[in-house]
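Summary for the lay section of the report: proteins are chains of building blocks that fold into shapes. Here we show the chain for EGFL6 protein and then a coded description of the shape we predicted for it.
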Amino acid sequence: ATCAHGCKYGECMGPNKCKCFPGFTGKTCNQDVNECGLKPRPCEHRCMNTHGSYKCYCLNGYMLMPDGTCTSSRTCDMVNCQYGCEEVKGQVQCLCPSGGLQLGPNGRTCIDIDECSTGKAVCSYNRRCVNTFGSFYCKCQQGYELKYTSSRYSCADVNECVTNTHRCNLHAECLNTQGSFQCKCKQGYRGSGFDCA
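The coded shape description reads as follows.
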């Protein structure tokens, strides 16, 4: 079985046929399924879509049950949690719907963890970390673009000389470099390459 375009979050099952892992869809299994938009809805009250999955949380005064339903809880109501709560051995604890969120100093609201600045996020050498609320993603460094080659996604150098995205002078030559480019004035001209006289 060979899949010319690959299966990003799935397995190649036959000629250009991908079997996606749960939570992903598309011809190459590269799209996240928004479970929150499915019918029947997976959560009784509120739903937060995550990469490849989803999280349920309840309205104030309700407690999240393992099946995604919410049950009335007078103790939760008293605590006034932002994303619902759970009772553990008689103790009421507020919840955050994602691992990229943590309880704030008041113990009721959730604040974002910046995985990029704390070093929790690991991106490969030619990618940079971009923080999002409750998560993060790895983006190609400037001068690189996401390409699918040899059955995998990687960041490939953008040849600014070919794509014509350089700012070289009309009387200069464009020279591509890894992640960037250089400009060199043509013979008979002098300057930085961006200005040639």
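Put simply, here is one thing we learned. Residues 74-79 form the longest helix (6 residues).
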